[in-house]
Amino acid sequence: QRYGSDRFVAPAAVPFDRLRRTQDHLLAALPPGFEVLELAPLIPLGAHSAIAPVDQNNVVSTIRGSEVAADPTNGLALEAALRRRSILREAPRSPAPVRLAAIQRAVRGQRFEGALSFAHFQIFALVTAGRDVGNLTFERESASEHVRFACDGLIRAGADGVRVELTDFGEGRFAPAVGAVTEALSLRSVEVEVLDRPDREEARGYYTGFCFKAFAWFGDSVVEVADGGHVDWTQQLVPSRKERLMITGLGIDRLAALSP
Q1: pTM above 0.90?
Q2: Spatial distance between the Cα atoms of 213 and 164, rounded to a whole number of angstroms
């Protein structure tokens, strides 16, 4: 009876073959230099609320001092911080980047509404960790790389077109990152539309500067599929105010459900 009524334990609503095909499209779009990890399904208790401002009530906790992964960018950030700490022990000012990606089935405690909303779903996540070297170099390069990947992945997965919305939560300080992304995407075909969204309020405080959303068109359907931006997580974890981190997540189940 519990199995038949508990939304957390039912199989995925999207067929496996569609999920796997979408995974392959996104992996094919991943830029060189990213290492793909197989993350554990659990993360230390409190990690989501400590690393990112996520309400603990929206996370499924265990009785063994851990919680079920709700967002793979948190686990990737922890791993990236460990690797950056190791790099800095050898070379205290090293800007050597750490590029990691993962596919993980995440569980969210809150109830979602809508046909393309699920209690558990796969997320394709990537993070780039590095160091501030001046002139917003890290911000410009990491933002451009992540947004290009999101657009390439969505087109490979069968989207008829992509709309990217760019926002600077730094009151203009990260305009060079927005400009770099706009310039990078201008080289693509008309499949990608780029919009400035200075009025965005969602995720203010979660992202610390540049952020973006990506929407995919499939025929008459337009759906939000990707979200990302710069966060201060590795500044807390390494710790150093010079550390920088760019994160991105794409909803695989949502994308696979609409892909041809």
Answers
A1: yes
A2: 6
